[in-house]
């Protein structure tokens, strides 16, 4: 062993870090986040290129949940494929079903009867509320606020109860059929929806009390993940992200489907295109959904719930593209029919997949902790990204 | 609009309407220019989707479809072109940034190559996978067993 007395005493010269080139390595660092990471909302793998804590660029690796939904569609009849679409964006299953049913109806040149249209709007908007609630809870949890999660899940339960009572399922509802609805509304449906609306209105204020002026929340979200309206359009980003960047565009208004043109509502927009504005836009959207449901539930007409649709569906040869405003953005179905009972090709244009492409651009120059916030604010569902 | 495009590019363009939706079938040789014109002069600033359809019995086996939307005009249009197996198309990434992942997915599922794409590789399936699942000759239960055995250590994914 070396006698410590024989060692030369430490000198300031040799121990000052600044003199040592290797002490603070300034090389870029590549690290891996995911696929099993609690803040990626599923199985998303992100490869980050970092300079210290600053993100220089990132690459998304996706496909872990790929189930070949489009291939399955080609091997099922139009009716048999209907429940599969619920499994893509499983937190907004009703919207997926609406888009698919309307696309096939277009192909068949039938239209759902007015009563069915009203019930569809009510359920779809209720689903938009649950989707935004789940987004708010998990997004806040990612950033470090645990309380909103309990609040939103408590209130989301009320909607899920309505779904369960209506069609027996809470998440993958399979609520709609091609041509209308399978089930008539249960006794007291209208009253329960109205009760929910009265219960939910003050709850939105409660969420906002927790976050809107919360200093930590504002500091963590303002000027984080900024994207301009032009960049959104170039990257095909739609939904609340596009609207928070100041582009007033909502398919429910621009190219109305179902019977949205009968309802009075506004398109909330933001100006800054940052995480905080996206939060405000989604909060305002929940209020608008409440407004739509209120009008719809007061005006449900009597009548049949199913249009005349043949038992064996053989849409005429042709193709159709139909898109709706899902809670996450433009959800489109491109269906090609060859005149047989099975679709020749079904292409799903998923909003989450296209929106996720903007992650790289939104995270550049931000900190690692902000990547978590940006993934949350994009509101992606990996089941829909990977299909 | 189509009349003007026809005047500029001759007979390679055919405009059709089905179920009230407009689409045009464009010859492959005109392909990048027509998209460029639609983007720059006709204000189709948003590329909604790019996808393909496989017709194995046809000589030119694939239909590649661009779904476009114009914010100023509030109008949709589809642009279709036919290409043969093994042929490639000019990438539309320089026209719309969103085409990046969409073209990668078309490559992943159909094996259609896009020239000039910045990073053309598989997106949903693993990099080493063999075969293109959305082609009609790819069975629904078929998979790359070799890949499954090497990477997952199981006999078959079924």
Q: In angstroms, what separates the terminal alpha carbons of chain A?
A: 64 Å
Provide the CATH architecture of the largest domain in chain A: Orthogonal Bundle
What is the number of helices of chain A?
16
DSSP helix fraction of chain B: 10-25%
Low-confidence stretches of chain A: none
**From the alpha-carbon coordinates, what is the Rg of chain B to the nearest angstrom?**
18 Å
* Rg of chain A, alpha carbons: 25 Å
Q: What is the overall number of helices of chain B? A: 4
Percentage of residues in DSSP E strands of chain A: 5-15%
CATH class of the largest domain in chain A: Mainly Alpha
- Multimeric status of the protein: heterodimer
CATH superfamily of the largest domain in chain A: Cytochrome-c3 Hydrogenase, chain B
User: What series of H and E elements makes up the topology of chain B?
Assistant: HEEHEEEEHEH
Describe the 3D structure.
The complex is a heterodimer of chains A (387) and B (158). With 387 residues, chain A is α+β, with helices and mostly antiparallel strands. Chain A contains 16 helices and eight strands. Chain A has two domains: 4-61, no CATH class; 69-386, Cytochrome-c3 Hydrogenase, chain B (Orthogonal Bundle), CATH 1.10.645.10. The mean pLDDT of chain A is 87. In chain A, a hairpin with a 2-residue loop joins strand 2 and strand 3 (54-61). In chain A, the strands form three sheets. Chain A has a three-stranded antiparallel beta sheet. In chain A, strands 6-7-8 form a three-stranded antiparallel beta sheet. Chain A is globular, with a radius of gyration of 25 Å. Chain B has helices spanning 2-9, 31-40, 99-110, 145-152, and strands at 13-18, 21-26, 46-54, 62-70, 75-83, 88-90, 113-115. Chain B is elongated, with a radius of gyration of 18 Å. With 158 residues, chain B is an alpha/beta fold. Chain B is built from four helices and seven strands; from the N terminus they run H-E-E-H-E-E-E-E-H-E-H. The model of chain B has no long low-confidence stretch (mean pLDDT 85). The N and C termini of chain B lie far apart (51 Å). In chain B, the strands form two sheets. Chain B has a five-stranded mixed beta sheet. In chain B, strands 6-7 form a two-stranded parallel sheet.
């Amino acid at each position: 062993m070396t006698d410590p007395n024989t060692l030369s005493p430490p000198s300031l010269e040799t121990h000052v870090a600044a003199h040592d080139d290797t002490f603070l390595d300034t090389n870029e660092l590549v690290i891996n986040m995911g696929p099993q990471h609690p803040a990626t909302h599923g199985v998303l793998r992100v490869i980050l290129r970092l300079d210290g804590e600053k993100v220089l660029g990132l690459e998304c690796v996706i496909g872990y949940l790929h189930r070949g939904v489009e291939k399955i569609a080609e091997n099922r009849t139009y009716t048999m494929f209907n429940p599969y679409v619920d499994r893509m964006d499983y937190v907004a299953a009703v919207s997926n079903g609406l888009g698919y049913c309307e696309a096939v109806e277009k192909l068949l040149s039938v239209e759902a009867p007015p009563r069915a249209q009203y019930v569809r709007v009510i359920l779809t908007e209720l689903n938009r509320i649950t989707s935004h609630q789940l987004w708010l809870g998990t997004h806040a949890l990612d950033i470090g606020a645990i309380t909103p999660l309990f609040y939103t899940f408590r209130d989301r339960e009320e909607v899920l109860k309505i779904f369960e009572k209506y069609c027996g399922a809470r998440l993958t509802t399979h609520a709609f059929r091609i041509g209308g609805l399978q089930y008539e509304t249960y006794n007291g449906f209208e009253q329960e929806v109205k009760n929910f609306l009265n219960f939910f209105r003050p709850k939105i204020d409660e969420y906002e009390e927790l976050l809107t002026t919360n200093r930590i929340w504002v500091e963590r979200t303002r000027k984080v993940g900024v994207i301009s309206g032009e960049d959104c359009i170039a990257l095909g980003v739609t939904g609340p992200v596009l609207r928070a960047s100041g582009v007033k565009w909502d398919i429910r208004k621009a190219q109305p489907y179902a019977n949205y043109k009968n309802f009075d509502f506004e398109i909330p927009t933001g100006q800054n295109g940052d995480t905080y504005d996206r939060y405000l836009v989604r909060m305002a959207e929940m209020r608008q959904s409440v407004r739509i449901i209120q009008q719809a539930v007061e005006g449900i007409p009597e009548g049949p719930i199913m249009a005349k649709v043949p038992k064996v569906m053989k849409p005429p040869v042709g193709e159709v593209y139909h898109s709706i405003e899902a809670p996450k953005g433009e959800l489109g179905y491109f269906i090609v029919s060859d005149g047989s009972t099975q679709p020749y090709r079904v292409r799903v244009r998923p909003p989450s997949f296209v929106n996720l492409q903007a992650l790289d651009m939104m995270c550049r120059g931000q900190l690692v902790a902000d990547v978590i916030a940006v993934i949350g604010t994009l509101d992606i569902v990996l089941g829909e990204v990977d299909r | 609009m189509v009349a003007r495009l026809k005047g500029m590019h001759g007979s390679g363009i055919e405009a059709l309407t089905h179920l009230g939706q407009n689409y045009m079938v464009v010859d492959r040789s005109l392909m990048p220019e027509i998209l460029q014109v639609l983007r720059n002069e006709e204000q189709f600033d948003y590329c909604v989707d790019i996808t393909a359809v496989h017709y194995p019995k046809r000589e030119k086996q694939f239909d590649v479809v661009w779904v476009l939307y114009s914010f100023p005009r509030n109008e949709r249009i589809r642009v279709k072109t036919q290409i043969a197996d093994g042929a490639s198309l000019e990438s539309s990434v320089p026209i719309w940034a969103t085409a990046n992942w969409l073209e990668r997915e078309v490559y992943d599922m159909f094996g259609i190559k896009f020239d000039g794409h910045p990073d053309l590789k598989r997106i949903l399936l693993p990099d080493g996978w063999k075969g293109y699942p959305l082609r009609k000759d790819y069975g629904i239960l078929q998979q790359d067993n070799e890949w499954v055995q090497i990477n997952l250590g199981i006999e078959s994914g079924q």
